[in-house]
């Protein structure tokens, strides 16, 4: 029989682990990786070093204590490393991690009862426990959707390792007496497998990380191309809509400059000039805000703000238009309603929604801003801008928020709209963790609902 210095191999393996830890720390620092699962992998490597050092010094520890510590550490090392491979692509969830952590914890408790058993029985139980952990993770890798190709290959590898460990467990249990199961070789063979896995698992993890990065880049490129396509279409529509009112402004200016028109016609042209300039300014103002929001120039600064005050301020802002169309515009909730959001963004949302309601409500109509509900469970409150105007069909209710579709409808007094305002509202509400939707009223008109968080949670 060959005399093998097992302690030297243990220490060599520990040194290998130190080298691998150094490589991963360099990788994390170099690429600024902020994935808690990588930290778990590094923890597994540190535990691996402790395990190997304890194996090399095990004669200096009381036998039952040394056995319990060794078996517990090795199970947690196995679990940590293959957990990293199985779930590296997902966002770290502490509850999910703790749920899986019960597996090695439960097996460690069972193994503690075998600390005084014979070598063959201990080998049998430890091998079986490790096989169970490998089998559970292999099942996850092979059945769960969204795994990468390398993760699937790793799943089959873990099935093979689990099968080998089961055979080893069975051989130890049956007490197969062959040279390969002698004391020294029993130490060397598992260590040789452990050394091989020491190199294979980090390589697999690096390949999986690379594959995930490539997949993210590919998905981002697809999204970017789609976004650019939608934005190109969006701006072409905006350019077309701007061309109309600007052309009208030019024509009206030419007619007024000629001075060969009656006072009555001049008054009508002046009114048309005012309406066109107002609509064009509104379009450009919304377009600028939308562009700033998408380019990150608008900074999201949430705070506790009074929704009631924002509504009242905007009602006062539209007093002239309300009187012109003889409308009834009022806020029907008196209480101080506070939400957690960005003041400027929500002010823009409310202004756009009230402007739309005025535009599509006929002379003598009614517009109410009501408190629909306060949902303490979901930490939200919902208000609604309710009018008795011309309404909006079901197909348009969904399309008005889509970036690649602009629905332009004339108001009750032939006011020109571009449909950009509602897209801006959705953009700002999404940033503020809010939602917006439209419903038709039973009789006539439209209700636009806005939901916002009450507190910062």
3D architecture notes:
- This protein has 457 residues and is α+β, with helices and mostly antiparallel strands.
- It folds into 2 domains: 6-223; 300-453, Histidine kinase-like ATPase, C-terminal domain (Heat Shock Protein 90, 2-Layer Sandwich), CATH 3.30.565.
- Helix content is 66%, strand content 10%.
- It contains 13 helices and 7 strands.
- The strands form 2 sheets. Strands 2-4-5-7-6 form a 5-stranded mixed sheet. A two-stranded antiparallel ribbon has the order 1-3.
- Strand 6 (435-440) and strand 7 (446-453) form a beta hairpin.
- Helix 1 (6-31) runs parallel beside helix 7 (183-258), helix 3 (63-87) packs antiparallel against helix 4 (94-112) and helix 11 (343-359) runs antiparallel to helix 13 (420-431).
- The radius of gyration is 35 Å and the shape is elongated.
- The two termini are 67 Å apart.
- 28% of the residues are buried.
- The model is unreliable at 177-184 (pLDDT under 50).
């Amino acid at each position: 029989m060959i005399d093998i210095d097992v302690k030297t191999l243990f220490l060599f393996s520990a040194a290998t682990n130190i080298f691998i830890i150094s490589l991963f720390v360099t990788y994390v620092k170099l690429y600024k990786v902020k994935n808690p699962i990588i930290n778990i992998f590094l923890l597994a490597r540190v535990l691996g070093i402790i395990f190997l050092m304890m194996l090399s010094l095990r004669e200096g520890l009381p036998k039952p204590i040394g056995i319990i510590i060794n078996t517990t550490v090795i199970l947690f090392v196995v679990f940590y490393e293959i957990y990293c491979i199985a779930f590296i692509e997902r966002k770290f969830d502490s509850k999910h991690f703790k749920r899986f952590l019960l597996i090695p914890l439960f097996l460690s408790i069972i193994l503690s009862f075998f600390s005084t058993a014979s070598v063959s029985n201990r080998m049998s139980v430890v091998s079986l426990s490790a096989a169970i952990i490998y089998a559970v993770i292999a099942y996850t890798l092979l059945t769960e959707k969204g795994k990468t190709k390398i993760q699937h290959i790793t799943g089959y590898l873990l099935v093979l390792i689990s099968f080998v460990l089961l055979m080893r467990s069975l051989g130890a249990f049956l007490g197969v007496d062959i040279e390969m199961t002698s004391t020294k070789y029993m130490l060397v063979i598992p260590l040789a497998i452990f050394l091989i896995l020491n190199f294979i698992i980090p390589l697999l993890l690096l390949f999986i990380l690379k594959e995930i990065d490539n997949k993210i880049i590919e998905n981002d490129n697809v999204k970017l191309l789609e976004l650019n396509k939608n934005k190109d279409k969006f701006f072409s529509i905006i350019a077309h809509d701007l061309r109309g009112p600007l052309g009208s402004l030019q024509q009206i200016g030419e007619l007024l400059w000629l001075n060969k028109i009656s006072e009555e016609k001049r008054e009508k042209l002046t009114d048309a000039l005012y309406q066109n300039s107002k609509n064009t300014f509104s379009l450009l103002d919304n377009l600028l805000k939308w562009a700033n929001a998408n380019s990150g120039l608008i900074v999201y600064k949430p705070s506790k703000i009074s929704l009631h005050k924002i509504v009242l301020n905007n009602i006062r802002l539209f007093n002239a238009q309300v009187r012109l169309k003889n409308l009834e515009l009022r806020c029907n909730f008196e209480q101080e309603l506070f939400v957690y959001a960005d003041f400027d963004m929500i002010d823009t949302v409310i202004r756009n929604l009230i402007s739309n309601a005025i535009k599509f409500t006929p002379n003598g109509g009614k517009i109410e801003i009501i408190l629909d509900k306060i949902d303490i469970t979901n930490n939200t409150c919902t208000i609604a801008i309710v009018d008795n105007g011309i309404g909006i069909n079901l197909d348009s209710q969904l399309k008005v928020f889509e970036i690649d579709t602009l629905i332009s409808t004339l108001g009750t007094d032939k006011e020109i709209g571009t449909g950009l305002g509602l897209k801006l509202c959705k953009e700002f509400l999404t940033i503020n963790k809010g939602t917006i939707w439209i419903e038709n009223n039973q009789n006539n008109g439209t209700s636009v609902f806005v939901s916002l968080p009450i507190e910062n949670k």
